[in-house]
Amino acid sequence: MNRRDFFKKITLNKAEYIRPPYHKENELFNNCIHCSGKCKEACEENIIEIAPDKTPYIDFQKGGCTFCKKCFDFCDLGVLNFGEKKRIAAYFKIEPKKCLAWVKIVCNSCLDVCNDKAITFNNLFNPSINNQCVGCGFCLVSCPVSAIEYTIQ
After folding, report:
1. Within 10 Å of residue 18's Cβ, how many Cβ atoms?
2. Residue 79 domain-assigned?
3. Tell me, what's the pLDDT at 4?
4. Full residue range of the structural domain in which residue 113 is found
5. Rounded CA gap, 49 and 37, in Å?
6. Which H or E run contains 41?
7. 26 versus 147: which is more confidently predicted?
8. Which pLDDT score is estimated for 1?
9. Where among 50, 74, 98 does a domain terminate?
10. Residue 144 maps to which CATH number?
């Protein structure tokens, strides 16, 4: 474990976890203490991690979520429910002061990876993330200058 991962693990508290998709209530994650992390093993993008309290969370520094539903398929404790909306509870925004396209440099890295048409540009510049965003996180990892930020909803 490198230094950054170490500090990330000790500073991340339970309220700050971004949970996998297909869940209704965060309280259900308390059931995860009885699991061996099957959702982490099933994740095709390898973005699910297990916190010290044995609950799963998404690490967007590793990639984005394809909503493949494998985490749901392997959850036998009823924490994840496929009937729930295909959405991750993270709100993404583009920080104009960091974004290349906001300083008139042609860059559409975030647009190229967004399958949900959640990023709009004004001609070639000034991108923003609209309400079609499902919180997959692919824009975050594709941005060459880390101009995309997120908060937990």
Report:
1. 21
2. no
3. 47
4. 90-152
5. 8
6. helix 38-42
7. 147
8. 56
9. 74
10. 3.30.70.20
Q: What is residue 14's DSSP assignment?
A: G
Q: How many CB atoms lie within 10 A of CB 55?
A: 22
CA dist 8 and 31 (Å) reads 24
Q: Tell me, what's the pLDDT at 81? A: 83
Measured CA angle at 24 (ends 18, 139), to 5 deg:
35
Total number of domains in the chain: 2
Q: Are residue 104 and residue 137 in the same domain, yes or no? A: yes
pLDDT of residue 98: 97
- Of 70, 69, 73, the C-alpha closest to 86 is 69
Cα angle: 73, vertex 43, 74; to 5 degrees: 20
Tell me the whole-structure pTM to 2 decimals. 0.83
User: Based on C-alpha coordinates, what's the Rg of the chain?
Assistant: 16
- What DSSP string describes 112-152? HH-TT--EEEETTEEEEE-TT-----HHHHH-TT--EEEEE
Residues 40 and 66 occupy one common structural domain:
yes
